[in-house]
Amino acid sequence: MRMIKKVGVVIKPHAPRIESILAELGLYLEGRGIQCLLEEVAAEKLKKPGGVPRHKIPEEADLVVVLGGDGTLLSIAHIAACKNVPVMGVNLGNLGFLTEVPLNEMTLTLDALLGGNENIINTRLLLESRFKGDFDLCLNDVVINKSALARTIHIKIWIDDREVETMKSDGLIIATPTGSTAYSLAAGGPILQPSIPAVLLTPICPHTLTFRPTVISSDSHIRVQLLTSGEEVFLTLDGQRGAPMVKNDIVEVRRAKCELSLVSSPKRNYFDLLREKLSWGG
Fold first, then answer.
1. Which of 13, 113, 238, 261 is the most buried if burial means most Cβ atoms within 10 Å?
2. Which residues are catalytic?
């Protein structure tokens, strides 16, 4: 792991007590002799000059700390992965599978990381999607979905250039193991341990029950074609970026070459997280 000299901070602007949490983190980093790079909205919260645009933070930092929820982390994760910069998510929301470090363990986790504990860094695979000549990366999922008013849509799926299914449904989720606890879980997909080299295909409300959530190798090349015309259909990446689709549009998905280094608390592992977030054993 590279030496951490600069920490970039990305925030959910309307999170409770965000100003005091930012100030606490700034004092901690100053005490460790580490430069704190605030994104623009964070700098405004503290009335400090020199805020950095969010998408530029990974270019200048050795570590990105996200203060917020999973949506905030997803907005920066794909950029940080490309720059090989680790990300630590501090949960200021409710569920938080990605921003898994509780606020009361923020400095404890930073102490462990700065002390050289690499066991709290785990790698997460990303997906690369290709649509109409544009490439993009996502940590959770690639989703093809109809709008609220559209009818069931018709799609064809190929895996490694072999046609495997033509189905009618409300859509399809192509998820990483990290994304298995997001939209895919709500659609009835299984939970995959993040270290498993796999990709999950989860149909959304399929018209028939013949095509079930399916786990395939992360080395697979997936191609999906929309066969429906005259309906509002969207391609969405990590629930944040995307584009409309029309009949015969094709989306290609494969494992990305880069991976995200995600920092977790030294006090819990993945199954502790599942027990906490999903109330297992409660």
1. 238
2. 70
The pLDDT assigned to 280 comes to 85
pLDDT band at 209 (very low <50, low <70, confident <90, very high): confident
Position 1 in a domain: no
Over the chain, what is the mean pLDDT?
94
**Do residue 141 and residue 244 come from a single domain?**
yes
- Which domain does 104 fall in, by range? 6-117+266-278
Q: How many domains does the chain have?
A: 2
Q: Read off the pLDDT band of 150 (50, 70, 90).
A: confident
Structure tokens given for 196: 């498993």
CATH number for the domain that contains residue 174: 2.60.200.30
